[in-house]
Amino acid sequence: MKVWLITGASSGFGRAIAEAALEAGDTVVAAARRPEALDDLVAAYPGRVNAVRLDVTDQARISAVVAEAVLWHGRIDVLVNNAGRGLVGAVEETGDRELRDLMDLHFFGPAALTRAVLPHMRRQGSGAVVQMSSMGGRFSFAGVGGYSATKFALEGLSEALAAEVAPFGIKVLVVEPGAFRTAFAGERALLQSAALPEYEASVGPLRSDLPGSDGKQPGDPAKAAAAIIRALDAAETPLRLPLGNDAADAVAASLEGARAEFAAWEDVARGTDF
């Protein structure tokens, strides 16, 4: 039986992963800003769900939640850094406050949680850190520069982390979903920077199309949760796992484009040594 600590567990991927872990017979510490939204899950799995209040931008509370989880269960086997939200805006439209707030949520919070659980995982000689990134953490496009910046940062941290903790028996899995039927694109969840008319052609379509996709996305969160558990249980867990046909297609195209660009400029790249 594993003990999972999942942030943003009240809905979306966090809720789906919590349900999958519980169905597998595991125990879940489900963290959310509104833990009362987890009352039904607590009732459905008596004694196996601890719903806790956590805003991942509150570093002092992070330490307390991890300490409480270890006190209750003696260990943490899987940390899922899932809490997050979207931001649409051209780079010029996106202000410092918006960028800093999103970086706190997507980077500094997960970094602090990871630091807090690692001593326990190292002592156990096992564990896994799941970073919920996005296909926008592998590549970027017009209108999501700020959002992608936070996910790029998380993925860079995680790539180094994976090499550092592998000798202790700890896995790192970066999940890169495409469009899934979560609340990500919902009116209350999706942030939008103040629009400048100059970027209507490049960013305007995303401003309308992304909210319009809410509830119609092709990805199934339950299947994503199953895929994450399958990857964690594999003998060779991948570092990065795109999820959804849209993410798989886009990541493949991005890799092919990067390879073609490198090949075109390889002579220049190699011609700069003394």
By CATH, the topology is Rossmann fold
Structural class: alpha/beta
Cα shape: globular
> What's the number of helices?
8
In the CATH hierarchy, the architecture is 3-Layer(aba) Sandwich
CATH class: Alpha Beta
The CATH homologous superfamily corresponds to NAD(P)-binding Rossmann-like Domain
The biggest beta sheet is recorded as: 7 strands, parallel
Write down the Rg: 19 Å
Kindly state the percentage of residues in helix.
Answer: 40-55%
Outline the structure in words.
The chain is α/β, with parallel strands linked by helices and 274 residues long. The chain has one domain (3-245): NAD(P)-binding Rossmann-like Domain (Rossmann fold), CATH 3.40.50. Helix content is 49%, strand content 15%. It has a seven-stranded parallel beta sheet, sandwiched between helices. It has a two-stranded parallel sheet with strand order 5-8. Helix 1 crosses helix 7 (221-233), helix 3 (59-73) packs parallel to helix 4 and helix 4 (96-124) runs parallel beside helix 5 (145-165). The longest helix has 29 residues, at 96-124. It starts with a strand and ends with a helix.
